[in-house]
Amino acid sequence: MSRRALLLFLSVGVIWGTPYFFIAIALDHFETVSIVFLRVFLGTLVLLPIALRKGMLRRTLQAWPAVLAFAVLEMVGPWWLITEAEREISSSLAGLLITSVPFIAAFFVGLLGDRSAWHPITVLGLVIGFSGVLSLVGLDVFSGLVGLTPVLMVLAAAVGYAVAPIVANRMPADVPTLGVIAVSLTMVTVIYAPFAAFTLPADIAQGPSLEAWGSVFVLGLACSALAFVLFFSLIREIGPARASLLTYVNLAVALLLGVVFLSEPLTLGMVVGLPLVAIGSYLASRRREAYVRKSKRGQQQPQKSEEIPETL
Question: Which of 247, 235, 290 is nearest to 102 (CA)?
Answer without folding.
Answer: 247
